[in-house]
Amino acid sequence: MHTPSFHPPARVLMGPGPSDVHPRILEALARPTIGHLDPRFVAMMEEVKQLLQYAFQTANPLTFPVSAPGSAGMETCFVNLVEPGEKVVVCRNGVFGGRMVENVARCGGVPVVVDDPWGRPVDPQRLEDTLEAHPDARIVAFVHAETSTGVRSDARTLVDIAHRHDCLTIVDAVTSLGGIELRVDEWGIDAIYSGTQKCLSCVPGLSPVSFGERAVEKIRQRRHKVQSWFLDLNLVMGYWGSGAKRSYHHTAPVNSLYALHEALVLLQEEGLENAWERHWRHHHALREGLAGLGIEYVVDEAHRLPQLNAVRIPDGVDDAAVRRRLLEEYGLEIGAGLGDFAGQVWRIGLMGHAANARNVLLCLSALRAVL
Length: 371
Ligand SMILES: *Cc1c(COP(=O)(O)O)cnc(C)c1O
Description:
Aspartate Aminotransferase, domain 1; 2 domains; 7-stranded mixed sheet; 16% strand; binds pyridoxal-5'-phosphate
């Protein structure tokens, strides 16, 4: 048997992630692998930490990329912060909030769910009422940018409410980091996780996380051992933490980290605020074009994500056939609906490097031709 090398086809990625990877990032990925304890690699990782602090707008010393995708960042937050028997309020308005509930339960925590309808942001009043009813809750968790529905929740307000009720906060910023305004320190977020393959336009497989002082204190004072050896921050801190000896914990994904470094250098070159503005600008252009095709948004204008455009599939249109033709004839990937929205909604991503004028035009003209 002779299996040839794999060469992926040329695609434009306008789905819910991964997004188009910038050529400079792909080039960084191909640089020679060096040892993960090599002093030059360790120095680069110091830069990754500083660049991530900039991206998250935080001074948290415990800011680093978990060596696994966004879902592992989610688990890192929950397994380290939730102790058995603790009450955790989870706001659920889509798929990813549902996964948070599952995480709490698997940590032996007691989830208290605040449900909001799909396509709506988390209702601050409902969170407030739930915390009044559960004064023993210790943590509040929510998704900033719900990729399953294209909704942006008001992170700052939700964090304020949680703090007034003496709760720590866990925030999912997988789709928000680098795409929309996010200020970890100013908003007081205690624990946050993200992903590399959405608005950072990097390859999938890493999860930037950041933990504030109060979260670190809670982790240090745990009564039970963290159930996951790999994700136990008490151990990981010896590797990434400030003043850490960089003793061996696991082998860092060296080349992927070159890629993340390059992605963050690109973000720094552009400027964080400029990147947020660029996502809005191309979202507005896409929105105008879709309106011309008679395609409507699922989410109210006030709560839309510029980087994830959830739109209704027009009546009588064959969802799968359209997406297949976009892929085969135009090399264009858009996302299908997830969960409650399957078959009803398309999710058009404008994430990171993919948020550009050429992609907007390609998407609009390809949709027009296929419909
Ligand atoms: C994509 C995504 C995740 C999971 O990230 P993976 O890298 O796929 O594991 C979690 N939360 C949200 C909001 C996401 O969009």
